[in-house]
Prior knowledge:
heterodimer; A: alpha/beta; six-stranded mixed β-sheet; two-stranded parallel sheet; 8 strands; B: alpha+beta; four-stranded mixed β-sheet; 28% strand; rod-shaped
Amino acid sequence: MNYKLKNKKGQVMVLDVMFTIVLIILILFLLFRWAEVKTYQSINDRQTAELNYISKTAFVSLTENHSINCYAFDNDNNYLISSCFGGDSVVSKNDLGIPVNYKCNFSIDGFAIGTNDCDDVFVPANVDNYFSVDFNVITNTDRYIKKSIYLTNILDKVDTFTEHEATLVIWK
Amino acid sequence: MIKSNKAQGSVEILIGIFFIIFFIYIFNILAANTVETLEINKIKEQEQEIVLSLSDFLYSGVNVLEEGYNIIAYDATYRIPLIMVPSQNPTCTVTIDKFDISIVTEYNDRNVSYSIANIIPQDSYNLSSPIVTNCGSELSCTIDTGKLECS
Lengths: 172, 151
């Protein structure tokens, strides 16, 4: 009788230990899954931060660039006109600071830029993460605009320039 | 019969102790690996922040150069931040060359690196040889004869 009682105690002890071990292993798995999620999230965040940085820099370079945007000129000086594109504007990935491993697509609705290096085919379904911005621009046949015409447009609010919507998309 | 039971109990205790030691050993290795993976990720995050802010700093110099704000001498200094993780303060090396801005951190006998393409137009700055510097040191940029010069 006494022997049987001891044996039962032993069985309960073994079950306790078994449950504890299973619980510890489950907690361990939970910990590793958490670490895996953190790692994945960190990689994802880094990729997004890099894409955002390159894209924002490219956007600023596209709208305020001496090699791309229009100039108002008189006999003495040239003044850069932001967000203005001429039919002879040349858009290159290099000027926008876009690395070779990134792709870009820049287009102006209803207007063709002279040379556009940013013309990769964008298919949203094939891309996980991308930067896209729509913004209004003014266009002119020539990048160099007489200062008197430019000032007339601003001061007298004469709509000399044509306004269009432009789209810039950048992805990896 | 009693002797045999006692011997069996001792063997069970020994197996139990061995199992606990083995379990602690495995747990330690796994925990150390997990901590290392998380710390490497933290290092990479900090490396990216450093490289992107450094690229921003260089780009702001190029903007000044392009805008032609030459009324006062351009002289800007950027202190490269240190990389810190809970277990140690690893040393890191930043390299700026024509193609990349890269950073390498020495962590537990391995090199953790991050790099981004150098987006500064090449004709905007004098960079005959790569700039190699350490985290915590200062990078100074001036504009000389129409080009950005950093050291």
